[in-house]
Design goal:
The complex is a heterotrimer.
Chain A: H1 2-38, H2 41-48, E1 50-55, E2 58-59, E3 63-66, E4 71-73, H3 75-91, E5 96-101, H4 107-112, E6 118-119, H5 127-130, E7 133-142, E8 144-149, E9 166-170, H6 175-182, E10 187-191, H7 194-202, E11 208-212, H8 213-222, E12 226-229, E13 236-243, H9 247-262, H10 265-274
Parallel strand pairs in A: 1-5, 1-6, 9-10, 9-11
Antiparallel strand pairs in A: 2-3, 3-4, 7-13, 8-11, 8-12
Helix pairs in contact in A: 3-9, 3-10
Chain B: E1 2-13, E2 16-27, E3 31-35, H1 42-49, E4 57-62, E5 65-66, H2 74-80, E6 81-84, H3 96-106, H4 112-125, H5 141-154, E7 159-163, H6 171-187, E8 191-195, H7 199-205, E9 208-213, E10 216-222, H8 223-228, H9 233-244
Parallel strand pairs in B: 3-8, 3-9, 6-7, 7-8
Antiparallel strand pairs in B: 1-2, 1-4, 4-5, 9-10
Helix pairs in contact in B: 3-4, 3-5, 4-5, 5-6
Chain C: H1 2-6, H2 8-41, H3 45-60, H4 63-77, H5 82-108, H6 111-119, H7 124-154, H8 166-177, H9 180-212
Helix pairs in contact in C: 2-3, 2-5, 2-7, 2-8, 3-5, 4-5, 5-7, 6-7, 7-9, 8-9
The chains are: A alpha/beta, B alpha/beta, C mainly alpha.
Keywords (chain C): Cell membrane, Membrane, Transmembrane, Transmembrane helix, Transport
Protein name (chain C): Permease component (HisM)
Membrane topology (chain C): Multi-pass membrane protein
């Protein structure tokens, strides 16, 4: 009797468990499906009354987590806030801006999963990326450069074309591919984030750190023994990104960006964040009104 | 020449005075039985002789080495002084034959063929040649103890210490072990020191009997003298108690 | 699956590095862990103190910190690549846990085994090597098996210091293919290729020893 009851309980429990798993999988697939195909980003943000931006939290001057306020701060954060306000004005809805820190490696997946609505995270516009996300127009003309120790004697990326040199890059950036083009013999090591890449450079794990000049300027302001050399050897313009085939949202964003550049908001933010970067004339970054 | 000599030896476990002014001389070739009630310090005393217990004060000379001298290499003494334990302490991960051959190989670097020949001879002697390839777990207590004796003998020691070798055995196993010990006492010129409660064995084999209580040696006399006319009242009492069993 | 085809050589390279790091760290941590376990049960007070400090330090600091410390600080004095730093960090970290498993194994062996061996003329080291450790390892096998499986999974720490392992290559593939989900499923399967046979083998050893006993 006892045995039969036990067995019956086991069978029922297994059935319930199997049903739960099936139900969960069904729900998940429906949710993903809905998010993937049916949802219009603009419609979604209007309904939520909020644009959730994926931003950098480890990049000085662009997006850096302020440990006191637990809020990210930087040029991109301020620009995202201005963009949100401008889009709200254009669409006649109430919109607030929310921020989610993303890493270079995970940001596109987060966008695809609709954890975030848009990306403004030092992301270079590339043809490969353009196949899977929608980019806005360029909001920052970045380019790849090289950060080296001041007494290293390295003058440009071509000097690094030697197996004895290691170039440090960050996972998920285009720096590795681009560096290979100019210094095919150099070893390339990718690290998780800019902080550990900078620390690795200081520890001698590599002789140069390569990424966008915009980011290197932030690192150079904090590490006076290091400087940028050779100017930019690639063009790596930054664009904001939305999920693929989100024309209405991209259109609104481009219109908002144009307005901000024309009404002087953009230039004010450039001055606010880049006016005291050593070796950089911030006026070069201004857009002509 | 004395094989083992205690001079004013003191041993403490914290506050407990385990060995109290022990003075004792055992000559080479003697067979001595050490008796006394439990907790009297017999086991402690015998375990100091091969350095399993350290002494705090006094002098302890074994085979000419001073055990209290930190410069003395204890392994040199252990090479020449074997010990048989109450709980056998056979190597559980080795066969009977390996138990016997291990120390001669590692310590004496005895030739392998010679080592095996001696080990098999010893197994023959203790009546367990057919168990050579058994694991200790497959043996009875009495068989284990006979293997343990063979293991000690394989080192060809000058002295052999027995620490209550039959106390953990079922009564029907005791006889075989005592027979082996009796043969050793009769046929070899080793120095033997035996802690035991087997009075008939002591009477038959011992040259001398030492009686201990409360960490002191109370009586040290020839076997006949001890059993026929013990001088100490506590020894008398002990004997009457043991013989009633 | 097209992802697997396209990046197959990258995954294989990562798999090779993960396997190599795991094997080196497994052997290294077994040797180190056993050494420090013996120190902890030795009669030497200094040995016990050193053994204890070693185990407490490496067991109680996150593996990531140990590894980053090696890669970023120690490497200033002793040159080492990310692969070396990661493997050494993994070895040190795991050895502390192995020391605890082996120590527990040693303590479970009755004291008579050591006394018997010492009285028989063997030195402490001989007795440890021939009598105590073989028995202690048998006792410790289930717990050692767990440590080894953890070690393989923990080898993903190499990714944080550019150690070229599976996780590192996975990150790169995820970043350039933009298909994070599939990438991590693929490398997850690669990890299973190492850990499944390992845990099966440990189970097999366990049952074999149980039958013997």
């Amino acid at each position: 009797m006892e045995k039969i009851r036990k067995r019956r309980f086991g069978i029922i429990a297994s059935l319930v468990l199997a049903a739960l798993i099936l139900l969960g999988a069904f729900w998940a697939s429906v949710t993903i499906d809905k998010n993937k195909t049916h949802q219009d980003t603009l419609a979604r943000v209007e309904r939520k009354g909020q644009i959730t931006w994926g931003v950098k939290a480890d990049t000085k001057l662009f997006g850096l987590m302020d440990t006191k306020t637990a809020q990210p701060a930087g040029f991109e954060i301020d620009l995202a806030k201005a963009m949100t306000a401008q889009i709200a004005k254009q669409t006649n809805t109430k919109l607030s801006a929310a921020f989610v820190p993303v890493s270079s490696a995970s940001r596109i997946q987060l966008l695809k999963n609709t954890n975030i609505d848009g990306l403004i995270s030092t992301m270079t516009i590339t043809p490969e990326r353009a196949k899977i996300v929608d980019f806005t127009n360029v909001y920052f003309n970045a380019g790849q450069s090289l950060l080296v120790k001041k007494d290293s004697g390295i003058q440009s990326v071509k000097d690094m074309n030697d197996p004895k040199y290691t170039v440090l890059v960050v996972v998920g950036t285009t720096a590795a591919q681009e560096t290979k083009k100019y210094a095919p013999k150099a070893k390339i090591i990718a690290l998780q984030d800019y902080a550990s890449a900078m620390q690795a450079l200081k520890s001698g794990q590599g002789q140069a750190l390569s990424t966008d000049n915009a980011i290197l300027y932030g690192l150079a302001t904090e590490n006076p023994d290091y400087h940028l050399v050779g100017g930019v050897f690639t063009k790596a313009p930054y664009g904001m990104a939305f999920d693929h085939n989100q024309k209405p949202m991209t259109k609104q964003a481009n219109r908002a960006l144009k307005t901000l550049q024309e009404n002087g908001t953009y230039n004010r933010l450039v001055e606010k964040w880049f006016h005291n970067v050593p070796g950089l004339d911030w006026h070069d970054l201004e857009v002509n009104k | 020449m004395s094989m083992i000599e205690f001079k004013d030896v003191q041993k403490y476990y914290g506050d407990f005075h385990a060995l109290h002014d022990v003075n004792l001389k055992i000559d080479a070739g003697e067979t001595v039985v050490l008796i006394g009630p439990s907790g009297s310090g017999k086991s402690t005393l015998i375990r100091t002789i091969n350095g399993l217990e350290e002494i705090e004060e006094g002098q302890l000379l074994v085979d000419g080495f001073d055990l209290h001298d930190p410069k003395t290499d204890i392994n040199k003494i252990r090479k020449n002084v074997g010990m048989v334990f109450q709980h056998f302490n056979l190597y559980n991960n080795k066969t009977v034959l390996e138990n016997i051959m291990l120390a001669p190989r590692l310590v004496l670097h005895r030739d392998e063929a010679e080592n095996k020949r001696i080990a098999m001879e010893l197994l023959e002697q203790v009546g367990l040649a057919d168990k050579a390839n058994s694991m200790p777990a497959a043996l009875s207590g009495g068989q284990k103890q006979r293997v343990a004796i063979a293991r000690s003998l394989a080192m060809k020691p000058k002295a052999l210490l027995f620490d209550e070798p039959t106390s953990a055995l079922d009564p029907e196993m005791i006889g075989d072990v005592l027979d082996v010990m009796r043969d050793i006492a009769r046929d070899s010129d080793m120095t033997l020191l035996v802690v035991t409660h087997e009075m008939s064995f002591a009477k038959a084999v011992a040259d001398r009997v030492i009686f201990m209580a409360d960490g002191r040696i109370l009586e040290d006399s020839s076997t006949e003298a001890f059993f026929e006319n013990p001088t100490e009242p506590r020894a008398k009492k002990f004997l009457s108690q043991v013989e009633h069993h | 699956m097209s992802l697997l085809n396209q990046y197959f050589s990258v995954f294989v390279q990562g798999f090779g590095h993960t396997l190599l790091a795991s094997i080196i760290a497994l052997i290294g941590s077994l040797v180190l862990g056993t050494l420090f376990a013996i120190m902890q049960v030795s009669s030497s007070k200094t040995g016990r103190i050193i053994g204890n400090i070693y185990v407490q330090v490496f067991r109680n600091i996150p593996l990531l910190i140990i590894t980053l410390f090696l890669y970023l600080a120690v490497a200033k004095v002793i040159k080492m690549t990310g692969f070396v730093a990661g493997t050494v960090g993994l070895t040190l970290y795991t050895s502390a846990f192995i020391a605890e498993s082996v120590r527990a194994g040693i303590l479970s062996i009755e004291a008579g085994q050591m006394e018997g061996a010492r009285a028989n003329g063997l030195t402490f080291n001989q007795a440890m090597r021939v009598i105590i450790l073989p028995q202690a390892f048998k006792v410790a096998i289930p717990s050692l098996g767990n440590q080894f499986i953890n070690l393989v999974k923990n080898s993903s720490i190499l990714a944080f210091v550019g150690g070229l392992d599976l996780m590192y290559q996975g990150n790169l593939v995820a970043a350039s293919s933009f298909d994070t989900f599939t990438t991590y499923i693929i490398i997850g399967v690669f990890y299973l290729v190492i850990t499944m046979p390992l845990s099966y083998y440990v189970q097999h050893l366990e049952t074999k020893l149980k039958k013997k006993a």
